[in-house]
Structure formats: structure tokens, C-alpha cells
Specification:
heterodimer; A: 275 residues; Uridine Diphospho-n-acetylenolpyruvylglucosamine Reductase, domain 2; Enolase-like, domain 1; B: DNA polymerase, domain 1; 2 domains; FAD-bd_PCMH-like_sf (chain A); FAD (chain A); CO_DH_flav_C (chain A); CO_DH_flav_C_dom_sf (chain A); FAD-binding PCMH-type domain-containing protein (chain A)
């Protein structure tokens, strides 16, 4: 039972959702509801109106335009994990989708909801950052894009709706690794990497306050080789304050774990890039 | 706060249309159990972790404590009461779980059957998911009797069903 009450409106179009969002204090967008509904129950989330966009079919599905994948925000995590275009062009995203929750949560949980969640660390933001993805946001003034890194830093701005994730489909040289909390499946730490001609792009979450791109680590590893020793040394050079101790974890442990997961991901990505 | 009056919703549950009024914050599991009396769907944690409330929503297995009734309106819902086409008879999966002793106290069983039904249906005929695949699929279903081994065997038996006469033709007298 949800102990707070709220209004519910099923949006018939994206325009209607934006109008409702602009006109109501405390309005929240409801997509799959897999983190918002438990959040409302525990009191971690508040809402006076839920605007249900789950049925807007035009925001769902994966397409490819040249070198870019367009992933509709209402694509479910199950669909993302299984999509052949995503598996070929952005394997770190497919792996992150699969690492999320459980089959039932993946059947309803959406790309947009996972990227927009702020209460707990989720898996897609690091993969989106490592992939160099951009978020497509619709607002009263029209549609714009923002880097995935910016979305992870400040969330979906008030009054806007996340409509798609635009991902460079750069091939197989990418990977995702995660250590999940045994009970909740949320990441204690997750790391995503993509090896580009300019060097590796590396992002970490769970161990850090939010999903972060680690440019210092990238600089230290540019040119390779990505041995475990080199990666762990690159992480040790980061300021200790970067890692936030959690339930039963110290900053030292989390820094080491982030390095180990990144080293594994780089080893797999590098194996694919030379193949 | 002025809440809008509860609107009339339609849900197709186990093949039957159901019309009712529901408050906006009502969860699907509350409608199924308290509104429609379908108490085979259980409530364990009420926060989306234990999986004993799993039902099928338009064919996909979902946790009914993580779905608003209003958002499900217009959809097809199948609960444990509706899995068997011929009322009272066990499905192949249920029979295989019974034969492998895949239930202990039974509280998690309806959710397990509803979740595993999707896995079994999506497995090509004549093949069976591997043990790691079955265990991964069970991530969202907690059994505190910890009877997972027998559940895994039950799924493998169910997938092997066409070649296994013990599943498809159970003597009527057996085990009764």
C-alpha cells in the first residue's frame, strides 16, 4: 500500500504530458514505475500528480541512423538488453541493462526511468557516459540534447521530459562490469568503458556520489596497455574523497573495487577492439 | 489536495473483463487480492524485492506491487488462478515443479510459477535453459525455505516435457 495519495493522469501525447508537467506543482513523470513506486511507498519520493507516459508508443524502440543509435526513453530494459543493434553498437549499454534488477523489473523498467533515477545509483548512466551518449529532452520551448554526463550531474530539469538516448554506435570495444548489492541488486560499484581512437572513456557509479566520468584515470591510461597493475595505479592516484563509504564499505575498498572492475572491463573491451 | 473522483477502469483478468473504480494510488496487487478476491497472488515485501506477487501483464511477467492499477487499465492480466486453460488441472510447469518437490512452504510458489512461465514459454521446443540461466531468471523471486535446487530441476523437467511421458501423462491415482 502506498501511504501517500496523489492524482493520476494518463498522457495521451507528449505535448499533453508537458502541459500537465508545467501546470501542476509536485507533478512527476511515471514511466515503468520500478523505482518511483517503491520510492513513494518508503517516502523517499514525493508526488502530487503522476503523469503516466508509459503508453506513448512513439517514445519506445531502437533505431539506427548512420553511426548513431536512437533509443526511445520508454524502451524497456529487457528490450534494450536483447536488441541486436544495441548489442552490436553499444554492448556496454546492453550489458548494463541486463545487470539491472531482475527479469520482472527489466520487463517494465525503462531507459528513461533508469537514467533519470536520482534516489539510488542505477546502471545505465555510466554506460551512457562511457559511450559518449546524449540525452534528448523535450520541454515547453522544444527539443534539445544534453550530454549524458550533464544528465547524471543534474538530473532531468524541471518541466522537461527525457524522450530518447542518442548513442554513437562505435562497435564492440566497450564493456560494463558491476558488483551488485546482494539484497537490492543496486550497484555497490559499476564501471563502464569504451575504447575510442582518442583513448579510453571510463565512468564509475555506486562507489562515487553519482555516475562520474573519470578523466584523470583516462589520462593516466591513454596509450595503454590496460594491465590490472596500471589501472589500479591510475585509480590510486585519484583523490580518496572521490569514493563515498557506504553500507559496510570504506573509501579504500571502493577505490580498489572501482579499479578492479574497470580493469576487467578494459581487458574485455580491448580484446574486442583488436579482434 | 483535491483528488479527482476514482474513475471507472477496465482490466481483463484471466480472460474476463472486470470493471471497477479505483483510487489513483491503488496498486495492481491490491486490486487483484482485495478487489477481485484473487488471493493466489501473494504480498511478501511490498517493495518489489521478493517476487511473490508476480503476475503476467500483457504477456510479460511483472511484480504487481510495482504497477498502479490505473496504469494497467486496458491490459490483459493473468494470475496464478488463470494459468491453467482447463480449470483445476496443473500446467506442465506446475506438474514438473510438483514432481521435483519444487515447493516447500508454498508461499513463493505462485510468483515462481508466474515468473518461470515466461522463461519456459520463450524457450525453444526441445531445448532447456541452462542452470545459470534459470538461476539468473529467478533473481527476482525469493524462497526463504531456500528450495531453489528443486525449482531449477523442475524448470529443466518442464522444458524437457514433450520427451518426458512422466510430465505429460501422470496417472490419475498417483500422489493423490
Amino acid at each position: 500500500m502506498i501511504l501517500t495519495d496523489f492524482d493520476y493522469a494518463r498522457a495521451a501525447s507528449l505535448e499533453e504530458a508537458l502541459t500537465l508537467l508545467a501546470g501542476t506543482d509536485g507533478a512527476r513523470v511515471l514511466a515503468g514505475g520500478q523505482s518511483l513506486l517503491p520510492g513513494l511507498r518508503t517516502g523517499a519520493e514525493k508526488a502530487r500528480l503522476l503523469i503516466d507516459v508509459r503508453h506513448l508508443a512513439q517514445l519506445r524502440g531502437v533505431g539506427q541512423d548512420g553511426g548513431e543509435l536512437r533509443i526511445g526513453a520508454l524502451t524497456t530494459l529487457a528490450e534494450l538488453a536483447a536488441d541486436p543493434l544495441v548489442r552490436a553498437g553499444a554492448p556496454e549499454l546492453a550489458a548494463a541493462a541486463r545487470a539491472n534488477g531482475d527479469p520482472q523489473v527489466r520487463n517494465l523498467g525503462t531507459v528513461g526511468g533508469n537514467l533519470a533515477a536520482t534516489e539510488r545509483p542505477t546502471d545505465l548512466p555510466v554506460a551512457a557516459i562511457a559511450a559518449g551518449a546524449r540525452a534528448e529532452l523535450a520541454g515547453p520551448g522544444g527539443t534539445r540534447t544534453a550530454p549524458a554526463e550533464e544528465l547524471a550531474a543534474s538530473g532531468v530539469p524541471a518541466g522537461e521530459v527525457l524522450t530518447a538516448l542518442l548513442v554513437p554506435a562505435a562497435g564492440a570495444a566497450a564493456a560494463f562490469e558491476k558488483t551488485a548489492d546482494r539484497a537490492t541488486r543496486y550497484p555497490v560499484c559499476a564501471a563502464a568503458v569504451r575504447i575510442t581512437p582518442d583513448g579510453p572513456r571510463i565512468a564509475v557509479t555506486g562507489a562515487t556520489p553519482r555516475a562520474l566520468r573519470l578523466r584523470g584515470v583516462e589520462d593516466r591510461l591513454r596509450g595503454g596497455p590496460y594491465t590490472t597493475t596500471a589501472v589500479l595505479a591510475a585509480f590510486r592516484a585519484e583523490p580518496r574523497e572521490l569514493f563515498v563509504p557506504g553500507r559496510g564499505t570504506s573509501a579504500e575498498y571502493l577505490g580498489h573495487l572501482a579499479g578492479v572492475l574497470t580493469a576487467r572491463a578494459l581487458a574485455r573491451a580491448a580484446a574486442h577492439s583488436s579482434a | 489536495m483535491d483528488l479527482t473522483p476514482a474513475p471507472t477502469l477496465t482490466l481483463h483478468v484471466n480472460g474476463r473483463p472486470e470493471e471497477f473504480a479505483a483510487r489513483p494510488s491503488e496498486l495492481l496487487v491490491e486490486r487483484l487480492r482485495d478487489g477481485l478476491g484473487l488471493t493466489g497472488t501473494k504480498v511478501g515485501c511490498d517493495t518489489g524485492q521478493c517476487g511473490t506477487c508476480v503476475v503476467r501483464l500483457d504477456g510479460r511477467s511483472v511484480k504487481s506491487c510495482l504497477v498502479l492499477t490505473a496504469s494497467a487499465a486496458g491490459s490483459e492480466v493473468t494470475t496464478i488462478e488463470g494459468v491453467s486453460e482447463r480449470g483445476g488441472e496443473l500446467t506442465g510447469l506446475q506438474e514438473a515443479l510438483r514432481q521435483e518437490h519444487g515447493t516447500q512452504c508454498g508461499f513463493c510458489t505462485p510468483g515462481m510459477v508466474m515468473a518461470l512461465g515466461e522463461l519456459v514459454e520463450n524457450t525453444a521446443a526441445g531445448t532447456a535453459p541452462t542452470e545459470p540461466e534459470i538461476r539468473e531468471w529467478l533473481t527476482g523471486n525469493l524462497c526463504r525455505c531456500t528450495g531453489y535446487h528443486s525449482v531449477v530441476r523442475g524448470v529443466q523437467r518442464a522444458c524437457a516435457a514433450p520427451a518426458d511421458p512422466a510430465v505429460t501423462a501422470v496417472p490419475a491415482a498417483e500422489g493423490r
